Fold each of these.
Amino acid sequence: MVKVAVVEGDGIGREVVPVARDILTAVRPDIEFFDVEVGYGRWERTGSACGEETVADLRSADAILFGAITTPPDPGYRSVLVQIRRELDLYANVRPIRGEGVDVVIVRENTEGLYSGIEWTEPDRACTVRVVSRRGSERIARYACTLAKSRRHLTVGNKANVLKSDCLFVEACTAEAARAGVPCTFCYIDALCLDLLMHPDRYDVIVTTNIFGDILSDAAAYLVGGLGMLPSANIGKRAALFEPVHGSAPDIAGKNIANPVAAIRSGAMLLDHLGDPVSAAAVEEAVDRVLSAGIRTPDLGGTAGTREFGAAVLREVGRG
Amino acid sequence: MVKVAVVEGDGIGREVVPVARDILTAVRPDIEFFDVEVGYGRWERTGSACGEETVADLRSADAILFGAITTPPDPGYRSVLVQIRRELDLYANVRPIRGEGVDVVIVRENTEGLYSGIEWTEPDRACTVRVVSRRGSERIARYACTLAKSRRHLTVGNKANVLKSDCLFVEACTAEAARAGVPCTFCYIDALCLDLLMHPDRYDVIVTTNIFGDILSDAAAYLVGGLGMLPSANIGKRAALFEPVHGSAPDIAGKNIANPVAAIRSGAMLLDHLGDPVSAAAVEEAVDRVLSAGIRTPDLGGTAGTREFGAAVLREVGRG
Ligand SMILES: CC(C)[C@H](C(=O)O)[C@@H](O)C(=O)O
Ligand SMILES: CC(C)[C@H](C(=O)O)[C@@H](O)C(=O)O
């Protein structure tokens, strides 16, 4: 029996996750789903966005299917997603960018960097410490190199010309790539954002630190139709969480117009992680066939609703 | 007599700056240029990339025309450009992005944030402190609001959902926009990178912190033909430095193929700063006419060399 925790979260998370869940159920009726409430809605109601028992619940699952969570820019409120990534030590954030002429995987360090949580406020300034650890750099470099080894090559996004903390990151990646025998090049993150847009065919696996990966993946979404398309996996040694790269998008929530592709593809990554590449591929292909048939949500210029798109994928999965 | 310091720097800086300088000379024969040697080449020869006398020389000028400088990712070598920005307190990095359907100005805080220079290495990790000061935030917010006031509206790029240091920045921008009566919205920097690419018409003036502005402007270059097109101004209370956004590009240096548009447009911004908007416009228009005539460097799909493009602009300026 496979146990999958489901966090719908806030906003469109509550619309796209049920769609993804139905599709997973169709291909893998043996999965036992259980809901975990986390997020801003819960915080408003109970004063806590995510408690310790919640983290324990998430830990007990074989995998987590996650929607999106609203974080108000309130100095007293810490991002729950960031908290979960750290508590479950989900160190590798893997973001495949696939589309017409684009096949890139961004591997983002997911537990430190500017997301260290080491912050303080003085009377006249506020500070955040960017932490690049040797262990953190080595393990993400190793993850990226293992992936690149089965693909083509590695690019290391960094800003070592300004941030001396990135010298350590570059060093770790250099060593790991040499060890793994992976061809490896380096690119400053600003230049990389642009060059990835201009020449996506030049890139294969990209590894970078936390916030650079955050920004780079959103920019890369431009190549494949926007954030509605991008899935992600947050991988740790003992836990794994799958979520669309997009946020909770309160402005379009509750209208049945959110694109569920990112969430469905995240579900496919979850299946793959559970050791079922066949079902994962079946879901991926069903999505591709529906898109090819011209069924699309409004963000892609179509007229299908979130639920209608989901129903179309469900039908295709049944056929596949 | 107007005195302009010229730093060609390294790589293609040595090719594009002379072109810009010739054009400035043509429209303003009264400018007295003087060369200042700064950069990697100097460091290799003398062991110092930029001395104190050099900074004093730069300070004595009415404006600085700057090329680009190579920074090796060597932990012992600090970026000279970052050093100059800080020593001359050039707090506003202004980057206009103009082209077909795009008219945006990115105003980037230029003296603190992740570029604080507060860094240290421990045995197992390296740290950089991101510093957001009230004074730093207020003055850049004021600069951006003054600009937005004469234009349309302001967007504040931030990551306050994760970085509590950005709450101070958001607060300062909110207060300044209210005071100036400027319509102001907020956008997380990752989402902003993407949305600016997808809907450039929704943006006018964007203000953000140091490294976010660095990355955002490179991504935005995608909208207007790449980095070869983007000029910038680094503005302080008592000094101003004008430079293309691109770097020294050692891979294409010395081949007479670098696009000098960014450097020439930086020259136009310099003229405007010196209180000569008429000459600035003359240079801008000459560049536009040459581009419209189909004369382009290879990065834009053309066959013109750096010098040939410059010569064409010189002819147009003469005609203007
Ligand atoms: C919501 C936010 C905390 C998150 C991040 O910054 O990592 C998001 O932007 C992402 O990319 O997953
Ligand atoms: C060369 C580098 C120090 C610089 C920066 O990071 O500011 C450059 O990328 C820029 O955008 O001006």
Note: Chain A has a mean pLDDT of 95.
Amino acid sequence: MTNLLPGKGLKNKLLVREVGPRDGFQAEKTPIPTELKIAVINRLGATGLSHIQAGAFVHPEKVPQMADSATVFANIKRQPSVTYSALVLNQKGAQRALDAGADAIETGLSISNTHSLNNTGRTSAEALEEVRRTARLVRQSQTPLWLNIQCAFGCAHEGAVEARAVGEMAKALLELMPDWLCLADTTGMADPVLLNRLLDEVLPIADSTPLLLHFHDTRGLGLVNVFAALQRGVFGFDSSIGGLGGCPFVPGATGNIASEDLLNLLQALGLVQKSTVFAVADVSRFLAKALNRPLPGKVCNLPEE
Amino acid sequence: MTNLLPGKGLKNKLLVREVGPRDGFQAEKTPIPTELKIAVINRLGATGLSHIQAGAFVHPEKVPQMADSATVFANIKRQPSVTYSALVLNQKGAQRALDAGADAIETGLSISNTHSLNNTGRTSAEALEEVRRTARLVRQSQTPLWLNIQCAFGCAHEGAVEARAVGEMAKALLELMPDWLCLADTTGMADPVLLNRLLDEVLPIADSTPLLLHFHDTRGLGLVNVFAALQRGVFGFDSSIGGLGGCPFVPGATGNIASEDLLNLLQALGLVQKSTVFAVADVSRFLAKALNRPLPGKVCNLPEE
């Protein structure tokens, strides 16, 4: 039979980072009770997933939905096999995240100046300086560091993004020796052609630093991009339970790819266990019930198997 | 750059068959007015699509939604560049479709006995006999003939389906010299591994008869399967405007892959024009307004570009 995926060791290198508790909840218009956040993270910790983005340490007035991240970190039931990471935008946030006991720190910048200014009030170049300072702090604490480039596949404001520019930014971030480098399709503009063009730039310089890809399913291409990435030997993906993270008021407008849909694809390819797919879909159904609305994912909306 | 697709001539061989007006409307619980069917088909005819499944000639009491197909065929504004096909289940239906002026006749059978009995009251073997008789009639009229195998990727009742069994049934159908052979994932069970296994069986015997694949997006793998199929040189796909065809009362439970989402992928791969994507998405939005509910597709729910 035709070999769909390269390499044999893929299964061991596979990484699925669950971003629902941060990226997903942050997109919710109404406040999510801290208890629900903790309950969801605890349930996710028991599914077999190895990485959960459990909160963000950012300005509490700008992102009130994440203002309780320290309380969340203090009260979740930690599974020894699970890495609970936190997103930060600067040194101060990193220190708060470390104090709260985050197992890994994620930070980064947007390759789009417009997006960077809108999001953080800094240009991409200024953000890079802050990433350098933050990385130094995280490194001192010997905590794993994840760096990401937002808008790596295009920007809703600026349009197309040059793969070469992303490659140069990747080079600058790789000098900081991250444990993972994440390329994020912040606005759902990636497709297999753009992805391959970007990987042509970044894979040769990433060397042994593994890549993590963050896709949105805005145009239904999220899992197609995952499949195309696996074919290039990239094996790290962000996803969100139930596809949480889209605008909750636009039906079908999903945000992140749904974790259980991603896992279902990976299961079909022989890379994860069926039991993990079911367990994660169960958490999505629990969350859908708690939010009192259906989530945009596919597998979680099927009759239970 | 990495070559994503085999061959150069793919663009010329590409076929997207719009099945919304038959497969999609047939799944609707409330009757669709004949005028709306005609309006949708007329709009689809102006988008650049080359094939539209415009109706079915089946038992009007069993499938009342399709009882007006002759009226639809009589009143649509035909575009010379478009093939308007009809689905039939037997000789009698084929004769009615030919009398109504269908440009191509589609018929077939289910590889699953249980599904075949439920759907037509015949075993797969009996259905094959009827397909033979129907094919003879269609051939006599020199009308293009499309044959399909339902449940080719699995059956909700019978579970897994052997690729070898599908290969044998494909062989029997190929003896009838169809213009296209369609493998249908009737219940959304296909994945890239099953697909490649099936193509390993069918491609060698299909020879110059082109294959058409019919995917459902039940588990979010519809476009992944399309991408994997393109990589094997298969270039014919069914799709439905807005992803029509799922149960309208289960959010996220889509039926067929959405035409504009499929076209958007094909556009990214350089195989279709952007204008066609936009034009088809416009028809989906028109239909969503007429049905007074959002359709499950992604691209049609984006802000208009």
Note: DSSP finds twelve helices and eight strands in chain B.
